[in-house]
Amino acid sequence: MCRWLAYSGTPIRLEELLYKPQYSLIDQSLHSRLGVETTNGDGFGVGWYPVDGPPAPALFRGTGPAWNDANLREIAGSISSPLFLAHIRASTGTAVQQTNCHPFRHENWLWVHNGSIREFSTLKRDLTLAVDPRLYPSLAGSTDSEVMFHLALTYGLRDRPVAAVERMAGLVEAVGRAHGVADPLQMTVATTDGDRIWCFRYSSEGHSRSLYFSTETTALQALYPENRQLRALSEETRLVVSEPLGDLEGAWQPVPESSYGVIQKGADEMGRFTPAAP
């Protein structure tokens, strides 16, 4: 499977989360503690929105292991962003190539995924044909994750993100059942339009991959008043991760099974995620 993180808040250099924490994303690429695979070396990617400038995100993706990429380290040490997604990949059977590396991008949207569509090669034709013909030309790779993204776009991700992802999940499960595939969908997903971040944790078998969100910054600052890094963060700062980046007590809360969350200005949201049958 894979590991990912989503950050929104006070602009920080990418290295502050990719490299510096005790269990940073780069550390997880070699020593994942909660993932299906210990090593995630089949490519990486980061997508970020600029502090000042157009809302369109930039992408940097590579096919090698994240721990050994000098360009990623160089970029992470020099780029600051108020909102970014990062991903390290462990292939579930599709090719190791740049177009299969996350995040996936469409206009101002980014998407990362951990999990799989079981027996994707069997379901791929039916699922791909359900993609809006206007979006089909932008399918560049061969992964189930990219097809999921384009199905969500097809079902209205831009206007009703939660409903669109529920319809995507419902279609995957319906097509899976039609082909006799048990428990076809396993996913944790983050997607963003550059303003808000939507995160999802769901699996057909009800035993989803790990996902955590950071405790409110003000609560952490009260718990750890001596921590200078925490004092520098705004109360709007949030982080969602496949697995915690450190052992700071009280810093991480598990995302409930079959749920979604919205990180946004003001009060965040959390709700029940229920696939919608097509």
Task: Describe the overall structure.
The protein is of the alpha+beta class and 278 residues long. The protein has a domain at 2-114 and 189-269: Glutamine Phosphoribosylpyrophosphate, subunit 1, domain 1. The chain has helices at residues 15-18, 25-31, 70-76, 120-129, 144-154, 161-178, 217-223, 228-231, and strands at residues 2-13, 44-49, 58-62, 80-89, 104-106, 109-117, 185-192, 197-203, 212-214, 238-241, 252-254, 259-263, 269-272. The strands form two sheets. The protein has a seven-stranded antiparallel beta sheet. Strands 5-6-7-8-12-13 form a six-stranded antiparallel beta sheet. A hairpin with a 2-residue loop joins strand 5 and strand 6. The radius of gyration is 18 Å and the shape is globular. The chain starts with a strand and ends in a 6-residue tail after the last strand. The mean pLDDT is 91.
- Terminal Cα span: 27 Å
Residues in β-strands, percent? 25-35%
Secondary-structure element series: EHHEEHEEEHHHEEEHHEEEE
CATH architecture of the domain at 2-114 and 189-269: 4-Layer Sandwich
Structural class: alpha+beta
Show unreliable segments. Answer: none
What number is the mean pLDDT? Answer: 91
Major sheet attributes = 7 strands, antiparallel
What best-fitting shape do the alpha-carbon axes yield?
A: globular
The CATH homologous superfamily of the domain at 2-114 and 189-269 is called Aminohydrolase, N-terminal nucleophile (Ntn) domain
Helix content: 10-25%
- The CATH class of the domain at 2-114 and 189-269: Alpha Beta
Radius of gyration: 18 Å
Number of helices: 8
Secondary structure: number of strands? 13
* CATH third-tier fold name of the domain at 2-114 and 189-269: Glutamine Phosphoribosylpyrophosphate, subunit 1, domain 1
Widest sheet: strand ordering: 3-2-4-1-10-9-11
Organism: Actinoplanes awajinensis subsp. mycoplanecinus
Keywords: Glutamine amidotransferase, Transferase
GO molecular function: transferase activity
Protein name: Glutamine amidotransferase
